[in-house]
Amino acid sequence: MKKPASQKHGGTPQKQAGAGAKTERQARSGERHKVESELNLYRDQLEELVSERTLALELANRQLEEEIDERRQSELLQSALFQIAGKASQAEDLGSLYASVHRIVSTLLYARNFYIALLDPEGDVLRFPYFIDEFDAPPGPQKLGRGLTEYVLRSGQPLLVSDQQVEQMAAEGLVDLIGSPSCEWLGVPLKRGERTFGVLVIQSYQEDFHYSERDRELLIFVSQHIADALWRKQAERELRDSQRFLEAVFNGIQDGISVLDGDLNILQVNQAMNRLYAHQLPLAGKKCFQAYHGRSEPCRVCPTLRALRERSPQVDVVPLVGGGGQSGWLELHSFPLADADGETTMVIEYVRDISERKLLEERFIQAQKMESIGLLAGGIAHDFNNILGGILGYASWLKTNIQGDHPFFRPVDTIEKSARRAAELTAQLLAFARGGKYDLRPCSLNGVVGETLRILSGTFDKSIVIETDLDGSLPTVEIDASQIQQVLMNLCVNARDAMPGGGRLIIQSSVARLSESDARHQPDAKPGWFAVLAVSDTGVGMEPAVKGRIFEPFFTTKEKGKGTGLGLSMVYGVVKNHGGFVNVYSEPGQGSTFKIYLPLSGKPEAVESAPERELAGGDEEILVIDDEEAIRQVAADILGSYGYRVSLAADGAEGVALFRKNRRRTQMVLLDMVMPRQGGRETFLQLQEIDPQVRVLFSTGYSQNEKVNEIMALGVRGFIQKPYQVRDLLTKVREVLDGKP
Fold it and tell me: Which residue range(s) make up the domain with 502?
């Protein structure tokens, strides 16, 4: 059954009232649900907004922190670069700069293990000037190898590798494993332009530490500034070393060097130049002609001005005017210097003290002159001796064959005396030419002085006081006592003649040792020990021009007829022939001193020879070979008169032929040394081929010098000097025949 409509739509009032309340509740619940939903939506939106704001704030904070970190890193980097530049200019040496670079890099990166490797200039040796490592010691210089350092050096590229990567590179043959293995290795090249000259390396041995790509980029950037700093410091050091080297060379050169500008102002001098002109210090700032020559204007002939004008090197010899009376000669070289525009603005002057060389040149020229004069005098004396040989030989032979009351005795005696006087003059010439006759024996020089003064004591005027100062411990000298006595007599007589109004004559003896340096400053000197005989007077002295010629034969300052001019030339020759030399010190009005230097012997003094024996002849056959007819004839007559059988030959070839023919009969040969076509030496050697035991007596107008001694050493039995007298010839012949020395 159907219900009523009212019931369908509302029911009973109570039911309707209950339904309305329910609807209201539902409505309120919906509104509440709606509000809650909206609130939840708002809350979600708010939470989302807060979350977005929080995220944005976090991003902003993170970005701010990164910006702050980047700014801090930038500030650290800028500070590091600033410090590198500052240390490069302030560091005293490269060692302190390396340490500073290490400290600076450590502020940016982990750099406990740090080293710098540099390639040497030749490019084949690697050096490690700075090396700090926890495990490895600093390596020494080494040839380029195949390590990681050399890999960066060759590639010119940075390298960041782990230990596994290094092992992989080694397995591929790219590198060799060198040193302790590190967990991280970072090396960057040090470059100058495109050239890699070194490597900077940092490394870590910590397994939990890794260098980042940012670390790599940072070290690359910093290394560019480090490379510039190191290169600049290296260049500064090389420049300082070069300057020190050039300064050491400049001041080490023993010749004087000065640098002048175009106005002849001295800009710089070396120490040698300062020593030359110590009295003018300081030299810099002065004009060269003022400092070096004491002039107020440039020299008339100035090589420096000529070098500036002609723009070419110049050489000249100029006088040295040093301090303290120092004088001499300088060889001056002037070298012009041009600037970048080609203008000659400076000159380098190079001077060498040639005073000693000039002195040696003068002495050499003097020695050459004396040698030439000696050769001329010796040749004349030798030929004159041959002439005198016949005169003196026949005169002495005639005297032995006539009595004193014979009418010809006085004329023959006069001839003999005149010939002897002439022989003495030639002996003086030969003495100068070092060709005189000498009988060398160990003697006391003081004894020779005493004997000479006993001879001269009665010939000197009482206005001349003779003083002696003799060294009693003087060793012996090997001399011909009569020749040295003649030397001393000549010097004493010259000293007497130099003091016409009286004065003092001082004779001294002493010992002196000459070093190599001393010998260079003494004419004809050799280093060693010498006995020195000094003869001094207080006479008129000599001008330099006179002193330069006193030893020349026939040069004399005495009046005509008062001297032959052979006295001092004989002194010069005799002393030289004894292995010594003569020094002369003299000034006008200050007297003169002659110093005779004779080599010491130290041998025991020779005893006097036995008295002469009676002349003895013989019956042996003697061959006389001489190109002078007078000599041959006088020898034949003298020897023949004493029982000898004599055959004669006019030259060496004829003599050899005669000896070959009469070899068994000829028991001795009297052989002249100097002959035309075939000389004595060649003749003797041919005679010796015929008979190795041939007895030969050598004869010459020269003394027993080196040339004669050389021939004597070949087997010659004896030597006699022309002109010889009867006794000399007979004695020597007998000694050779009897086999006596």
Answer: 441-599
